[in-house]
Structure formats: structure tokens, C-alpha cells
Amino acid sequence: MSEIRDIETLVCTDIKARQKVGIKKYGVTVAQNPLSEQQWLQHAYEESLDLSIYLKRIIESKEQAVRDSQS
What we know:
The protein has two domains: 1-34; 35-71. 83% of the residues lie in helices and 0% in strands. The protein is built from two helices and no strands. The protein has helices at 2-26, 37-70. The N and C termini lie far apart (41 Å). The mean pLDDT is 93.
């Protein structure tokens, strides 16, 4: 159970750090940002595409390592 709390604490720490970056970059918090709902959806969609690319990159790397070890 303590491992889950440690992970949650790390995620919370990351969120706080990310918020500081966002405020520095945009000058406002997410709550204060005047984007429309459509713009928020577009941002979220683009971020999910990026995540897919990052995940696929790691998957391909792991699969290549397995193939290499079997050769």
C-alpha cells in the first residue's frame, strides 16, 4: 500500500511542477485560461497523439531488444 502512496505523491509533485511551467509559459493557470471547450479538446487530442508516439517508440525499442537477444 505504501508504494501506491509514494507513486501518488510523485504524481502530485509532477502536477505541481507542471503547473509552475504552465504559469510561467502562459501567465495563467488552466482554470484562468480562456480557451474554448473545443480548443481544450483539440489540445487534449494532440497530447494523446504525442503520448501514442512516445509509447510506440518504447514498445518498438523493447521488441527490438527481444529480437536482438534471440539472434
